[in-house]
Here is the input.
Amino acid sequence: MRAPFLPLLALIPALLAGPGAGYAPADEPMPAHAPHAPGHPERVAPKTIDLAICLDTSGSMQGLIDAARQKLWSLVSELAMAKPTPTLRVALLTFGSPGSDDPGHVVLRTEFTQDLDLVSEKLFQLGTSGGDEFVGRVLHRALGSLAWTTQGALRLVFVAGNESADQDREKPFRLEAQNAVAKGVIVNAIYCGGPDDGDAALWRELALLGKGRFASIDHNHGTVAIATPFDQPLAELSAKLNATYVFVGGKAREQEERQRVQDGNAAGAGAPAAAERAAAKASGLYRTDDLVERLAADPTLDLATLKDEELSPELQKVPAVERKAWLVARKNEREALQTQVKELDHKRRAHVAAEMKRQQLSDLSALDRALRDAVREQAGAAGFDFETPPEQVK
Here is the structure.
């Protein structure tokens, strides 16, 4: 562990050198998605994206954790632009803080899940302290412990840290990267430091061996957050969306509370973060196990199979013969709110892009930019198409 790395001034040469200086392919760029060549079958995009995020939580990495908390929803919104809309499953692992010696201080915070509120909850529970940053060990754990989708999936790992990637002698990162490729998992390396630091070369090698992307970021100063006139209206619509969720069963209250708390956590991270969360909640990737979604997935769902005590107090008051129509009304209300959110978010994105250009700001050294660029490139190469992003200052 070492003190937080160099100030933002040290990244100026990389920024002036252009977009490839701070964020670059580890090897030759992966081909962009293009129409299939004559005589070759058209590629079919995977239905699922498995995304394992591995974060260094040693003492100097609070900035990295804060960036992940603030920008999780930005990544979700980026993936929501993919066509066809994928099923997104996210897992979170940490390494670098003192813990059990057996797994090398690696902690599996959550298995692959579509419950993005759960991932956010785990991020906000993280703290930092000194420890050994065993990159090979966290890769080994991600490959061996997670239930990766076996067919029809794009499988990605992101490992982010600021110490040498070669500390782990028991599970060498080179071998683990090769094992990942053999299993069809792409390894992306995010080095929290300057691109010319001595340790950066090993992180480049990790990405090269893992057939992924290398990025160097400023985890303490790289995040760019621009307030817009649309942030508050989006947060208000986000709260209204919550009222359309009808959680049932033994975990209903837990799910409802988690959704509310993560709204609060996003708001606490700043108005831009709350707005990005609202946009994510309006996308097809924000999925919760509520009765509205169950009925939308299966219109023949027999509500009579649910016991009254499993239903929300509000739904219990609705006569049994009217419950399906009541849920359809909640579904229609949700879709109308989602449409409003998407329209406002489009304006918000345009406003952010214009402000970044006007203020001559760059997000090239930001965690979320590294994640978004890698996912967009690798998903595009796998067969997904993406909407053109707002103009970004280079």
